[in-house]
């Protein structure tokens, strides 16, 4: 069975699932989405080779041969089970990505099905290679009126490459999230990644300032990845920290501070030269509230 036929079958299944999916979900604090937002997760493999634009090779071999397939489409389905009668979450996501000479841009549309209401989120972003030592990531997102989606969100990262082979990347980032409910987050982050042949090691720390109340919290993410573009990528991510905010929904508003733990395993595998499958399996725990076990299955096609 060729790649195009697989993509068409998966797309038909997704459409049927989309129109037949009930609005399942859970009651949640509404503000833990910062740790679960996947604005840049679909672009991991493009980020792993920040020096893919090399002028001499372009002159010698030509742009087409150097860049290969410039377009990618991804389609995936997600399902999460939550403990303590919180219910289940479902989502379906469609993404288009385009590679140009010195930048990569993408658009992403995702629908959510939860007990507290269905929602839709639109994301657009770009990776830009400025020179041999700097590239940036910029993204904007907006969601429909719901307590768990952002009214709008902006992300920006500065990525500085260093080392003899420029195989180390130091990142400084900032995120601003405004929710439909009375809540806003300002997130500052810093991280370091090392690229060693087929291995990638990374760490990032996040400082979240939640308003109203200017309540602060920290979280940490460790990651290890193995693989290569065109064959497979496998990643294991471990995050922990606390989620804190000032609850204005209670009769007597008070500060809420809860510990969180997140474990995520991701795999992307090329079945053919230009297409393949990917999946995720994850576990998330928010102290004194709920535990979540989830999975995602998707198909991608390069053309």
Count the E strands. 14
Backbone CA Rg = 20 Å
Shape: globular
- Would you identify the regions where 5 or more consecutive residues have pLDDT less than 50? 18-61
Oligomer: single chain
First-to-last CA distance: 18 Å
Percent strand: over 45%
Order of helices and strands: HHHHEEEEEEEEEEEEEE
CATH topology: Porin
Quick summary of this structure?
This protein has four helices and 14 strands. By secondary structure, it is mostly beta strands.
Could you describe the 3D structure shown?
This protein is mainly β and 303 residues long. The chain has one domain (3-302): Beta Barrel (Porin). The protein has helices spanning 3-20, 44-47, 55-61, 63-67; strands at residues 71-82, 87-99, 103-113, 119-129, 134-143, 150-162, 168-179, 184-196, 199-211, 215-228, 232-247, 254-270, 275-286, 290-302. Strands 1-2-3-4-5-6-7-8-9-10-11-12-13-14 form a 14-stranded antiparallel barrel. A hairpin with a 5-residue loop joins strand 3 and strand 4 (119-129). The longest helix is centred in the N-terminal third of the chain and has 18 residues, at 3-20. Mean pLDDT is 83; it is low at 18-61.
């Amino acid at each position: 069975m060729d790649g195009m036929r697989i993509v068409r079958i998966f797309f038909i299944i997704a459409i049927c699932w989309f129109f037949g999916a009930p609005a399942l979900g859970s009651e949640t604090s509404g503000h833990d989405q910062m740790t679960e937002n996947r604005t840049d997760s679909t672009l991991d493999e493009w980020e792993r080779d920040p020096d893919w634009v090399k002028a001499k090779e372009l002159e010698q071999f030509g742009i087409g041969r150097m860049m290969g397939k410039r377009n990618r489409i991804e389609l995936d389905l997600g399902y999460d089970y939550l403990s303590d009668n919180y219910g289940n979450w479902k989502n379906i996501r469609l993404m288009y990505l385009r590679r140009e000479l010195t930048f990569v841009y993408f658009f992403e549309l995702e629908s959510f099905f939860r007990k507290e209401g269905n929602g839709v989120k639109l994301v657009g972003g770009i990776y830009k290679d400025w020179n041999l030592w700097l590239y940036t990531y910029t993204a904007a997102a907006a969601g429909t009126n719901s307590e768990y989606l952002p009214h709008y969100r902006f992300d920006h990262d500065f990525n500085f490459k260093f080392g003899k082979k420029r195989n180390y990347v130091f990142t400084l980032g900032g995120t601003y999230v405004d929710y439909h409910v009375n809540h806003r987050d300002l997130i500052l982050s810093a991280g370091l990644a090392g690229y060693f042949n087929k291995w990638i090691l990374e760490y990032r720390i996040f400082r979240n300032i939640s308003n109203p109340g200017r309540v602060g919290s920290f979280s940490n993410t460790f990651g290890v990845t193995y693989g290569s573009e065109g064959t497979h990528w496998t990643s294991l991510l471990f995050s922990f920290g606390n989620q804190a905010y000032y609850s204005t929904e209670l009769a007597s508003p008070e500060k809420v501070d809860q510990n969180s733990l997140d474990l995520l395993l991701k795999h992307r595998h090329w079945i053919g030269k230009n297409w393949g499958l990917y999946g995720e399996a994850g576990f998330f725990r928010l102290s004194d509230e709920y535990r979540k076990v989830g999975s995602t299955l998707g198909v991608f096609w390069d053309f």
